[in-house]
């Protein structure tokens, strides 16, 4: 499936949050496989993003960072947007998540749901 790098980058942290919840074994295995499938493209995007921070950022207390208001902020955002808009081909199976686990409703934030939209589906 063709995905934007931004989708991949945002989804990985949201999917990792799911790892902190208790799931049936099949769901746990499917989530682990999904993260493995996304790992290589995620690492590539993160390496380029780190390079952009190094290119545009400034050192403070031995750490490189960039934040709104910095001299190179707009150039950084432009480069980051270009990176995140670039497509990558990724093969994966969408994970079906149950709405309840052990009689408890599964609770996720809207931001997490949006980030994982292409990667998970919910079943009753």
Give a concise summary:
The protein has 124 residues and is an alpha+beta fold.
Please specify the SSE layout and strand pairing:
Elements: E1 2-4, H1 5-18, H2 25-56, E2 58-60, E3 63-65, H3 73-85, E4 87-89, E5 95-98, E6 100-101, E7 104-105, H4 110-116, E8 120-123
Parallel strand pairs: 5-8
Antiparallel strand pairs: 1-4, 2-3, 6-7
Helix pairs in contact: 1-2, 1-3, 1-4, 2-3
Shape: elongated
Largest sheet: 2 strands, antiparallel
Nearest-integer average pLDDT? 93
What class would the helix/strand composition place it in?
alpha+beta
Q: Roughly what fraction of the amino acids lie in strands?
A: 15-25%
Total number of strands = 8
Number of helices: 4
């Amino acid at each position: 499936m063709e995905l934007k790098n931004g989708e991949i980058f945002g989804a990985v942290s949201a999917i990792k949050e799911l790892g902190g919840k208790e799931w049936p074994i099949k769901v746990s295995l499917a989530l682990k496989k999904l993260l493995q499938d996304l790992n290589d493209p995620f690492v590539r995007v993160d390496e380029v993003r780190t390079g952009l921070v190094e290119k545009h950022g400034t050192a403070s207390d031995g750490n490189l960072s960039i934040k709104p208001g910095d001299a190179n902020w707009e150039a950084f955002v432009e480069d980051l947007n270009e990176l995140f808009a670039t497509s990558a081909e990724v093969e994966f199976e969408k994970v079906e998540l149950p709405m309840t686990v052990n009689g408890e409703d599964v609770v996720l934030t809207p931001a997490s749901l949006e980030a994982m939209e292409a990667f998970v589906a919910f079943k009753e």
